[in-house]
Amino acid sequence: MVRDPRATSSADGNSVTRREVLIAGSTVAALTGASGRALAADRGVPLARPNRDYTPVVVPNGAKLPWKIAGGAKVFHMVAEEVDHEMAPGLKVRCWGYNGRVHGPVIEAVEGDRVRIYVTNRLPAPTTVHWHGVLLPNGMDGVGGLTQKAIAPGETFKYEFTLRQSGTCMYHSHHDEMTQMALGLTGLFVIHPRRPKTRADRDFAIMLHEWRIDPGARRPNPNEMTEFNMLTMNARAFPGTAPLVVRTGQRVRIRIGNLSAMDHHPIHLHGYQFRITETDAGPLPESAQWPETTVLVPVGSTRTVEFVADAPGDWALHCHMTHHVMNQMGHGVPNLIGVKPGQLDERVRKVLPGYMTMGQTGMADMGDMGMPVPPNSIPMLGGKGKHDTITMGGMFTILKVRDGLKGYGDPGWYENPAGTLATTAAADDLRRDGVDPGKAPVIEDDAG
Ligand SMILES: [Cu+2]
């Protein structure tokens, strides 16, 4: 906490509205001297403190936008600019983002907060910021041409409104949307309830996105409409995604936003049943929540799920569209499943040294081959797993649940308790159970 030397003391010495207190994200927890009894002088809304009044969100591979209290509001400063970003080890791209990040840092606030958000445009084109799902005065809605003049390069605009809701909202450019969102100008806007009914111990925020980045290219192609070849969580593709680390028994919340251009994403979690507890319009009443293992997150929407992490392990969390867990895959490849190349390889190598027919049994080997890929591109799939190569890419990450964790760094791979790991069947077991690997059971048509 750094106190602005220009700040003046208030009569009660406690009001942060009359002191200008600079607070950087979670360090606000260290705010002990000032009780912050009045955040908005005109409304008398107290300052909710992270960790005491709400659990701050965790942004895997991402960041949160710092804020300070000034003039009775939480003040944020966003800078729209070009950003060099690593999407996965080996793939660097030049995107448009905010404050050096792609996507923009998560804005975190509390119901009742007055927020003042400055937006500086350092892009080569005009832009705006729309606060997606946030209830606000029309002139603060950020739609270029409709509700405001676009922010010209070099200009700084001020948005200001009071948060009248809680939930997981988003923000994104609303000027030349197709180009600017495709280049990454999006982010999450989390508004915690003033009086939460349930508190999560771990509260994760993940933004989904899809991109077209041709192997070797640095610039995502915003003109793409169907053939997206990079699918990301917080702008990272597996094996570049950080795991979600949780201690056994903790209540977990995962907020998922989707500002992809064209695709909805059914996000599936292994090992658990969760409840869908929120949409972009805030909390769902308990009677309207339902259990699922896959949550469909439509374009332009957020969904929040919650569960108690009572099953330790390394659990996959991924989009269930199978082409969304591949990296930079060209879909024009011929179908070679079942093809027997015979002498083909030998003959082709005479004119094309090193040629090898691939894909006769599928794509899984691609991750293992260590095949050279063009500069600045990554293999279609494959991350290192405990037991083997994980034959996934793209929108894939791992929920790591462990007993007695002391911190939230990557705890490594799960040690399966004896008798709980699928392995080669023992001969004794096969014999006891009458299973002959050489003979499939005879199956008759179901007579009904
Ligand atoms: Cu998907």
How would you sum up this structure, described in words?
The chain is mostly beta strands and 448 residues long. The chain has one domain (2-319): Cupredoxins -  blue copper proteins (Immunoglobulin-like), CATH 2.60.40.420. It is built from 3 helices and 25 strands. The protein has helices spanning 177-182, 344-351, 427-433; strands at 2-3, 21-23, 67-70, 73-88, 91-98, 107-110, 114-121, 130-132, 156-162, 167-172, 186-192, 202-211, 230-233, 244-247, 251-258, 265-269, 274-279, 282-283, 291-292, 294-297, 301-308, 313-319, 383-384, 389-390, 396-402. The strands form 5 sheets. Strands 1, 2, 3, 4, 5, 7 and 9 form a 7-stranded mixed sheet that branches. β3 (67-70) and β4 form a beta hairpin. Residues 1-42 have low confidence and may be disordered. The structure holds copper (II) ion. Residues 231, 263, 265, 319, 321, 324, 395 line the site of copper (II) ion (CU).
Which features does this protein show?
single chain; 448 residues; mainly beta; Immunoglobulin-like; 7-stranded mixed sheet; globular; disordered N terminus; binds copper (II) ion
